């Protein structure tokens, strides 16, 4: 699958959203942090900056965290379809900011949580249709619960970019080999 700029951006946004609420981590604790998340990911439209808006985004995060390591394609499809229905999706091409022509499925005035959910649902449509759901992964490090999207050609990525997990795993393996060589 060749990921378009929009698809890659939305998948990375999904990863950032899910990773913002891992075990013992809350990177979206208040409306100010949500404002920064929205700015970082280039969302247009209104932002109320209320606790209610933050709660709704947390709910979207919980819903879509399930797509990483999903038991079945059907469960992801059910979530996507429910989201499209709940948000009254009506796809339309738009051109704003530096994005060029791209797809929106809710009005710019829709609640932020709906705009986030729809962007995720739309990118998951492409991922499911292309049979690439296996690219949505959990980090292989034993002490990490972060998620990532494997954009590599050969689908070989095993570690997230959150906690330096790949480097830590390689250092630990090196040390084990050194100890074994010294013992043997």
UniProtKB/TrEMBL annotation:
The record's section on Gene3D superfamilies has:
Jann2411-like domain (1.10.3300.10)
InterPro entries, alphabetically? ABATE, ABATE_dom_sf, Znf_CGNR
Domain Zinc finger CGNR span(s) in chain numbering:
135-178
Q: What is this protein called?
A: CGNR zinc finger domain-containing protein
Organism lineage reads as: Bacteria, Bacillati, Actinomycetota, Actinomycetes, Micrococcales
């Amino acid at each position: 699958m060749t990921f378009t700029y929009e698809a890659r951006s939305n998948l990375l946004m999904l990863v950032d959203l899910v990773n913002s609420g891992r075990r013992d981590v809350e990177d979206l604790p208040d409306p100010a942090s949500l404002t920064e998340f929205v700015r970082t990911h280039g969302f247009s439209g209104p932002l109320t900056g209320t606790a209610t808006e933050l709660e709704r985004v947390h709910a979207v995060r919980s819903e879509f965290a399930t797509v990483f390591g999903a038991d079945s394609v059907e469960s992801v499809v059910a979530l996507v379809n429910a989201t499209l229905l709940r948000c009254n999706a009506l796809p339309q091409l738009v051109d704003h900011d530096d994005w060029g022509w791209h797809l929106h499925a809710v009005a710019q005035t829709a609640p932020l949580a709906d705009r986030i959910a729809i962007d995720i649902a739309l990118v998951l449509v492409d991922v499911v249709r292309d049979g690439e759901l296996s690219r949505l992964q959990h980090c292989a490090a034993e002490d990490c619960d972060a998620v990532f999207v494997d954009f590599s050609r050969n689908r070989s990525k095993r570690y997230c970019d959150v906690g330096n997990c790949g480097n830590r795993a390689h250092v630990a393996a090196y040390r084990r080999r050194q100890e074994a060589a010294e013992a043997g």
